User: Which sequence fits this backbone?
């Protein structure tokens, strides 16, 4: 069974940076990040294909950078200028091009305080 494992969450103060990492046990065409704040729906943050082409949610506003070294099974989400509103559980996901199942990691908590 394919697994995705996130790491790198934690505590930060506003304006600081954190980098999240997700490693998959199998290959995915597309890997990305979603987040879910308390009482809110899960929302898209960013994704990237095995060939590049990162996509971002509007609220990222140039603060986050997703990367996928060598298009392999690990992605990173570099988050800078963190805001309190970035507090959420961040989930990694992976899927293939076209209709396919989506696989999710367990999530990693990010808490931003002032």
Assistant:
């Amino acid at each position: 069974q394919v697994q995705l494992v996130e790491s790198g969450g934690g505590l930060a103060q506003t304006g600081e940076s954190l980098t999240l990492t997700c490693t998959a046990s199998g290959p995915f065409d597309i890997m990305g990040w979603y987040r879910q704040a308390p009482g809110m729906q899960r929302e898209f943050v960013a994704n990237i294909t095995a060939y590049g082409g990162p996509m971002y949610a509007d609220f990222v506003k140039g603060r986050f950078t997703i990367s996928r070294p060598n298009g392999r099974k690990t992605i990173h989400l570099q988050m800078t200028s963190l805001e309190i509103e970035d507090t959420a559980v961040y989930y990694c996901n992976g899927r293939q091009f076209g209709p396919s199942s989506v696989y999710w990691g367990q999530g990693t908590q990010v808490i931003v305080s002032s």
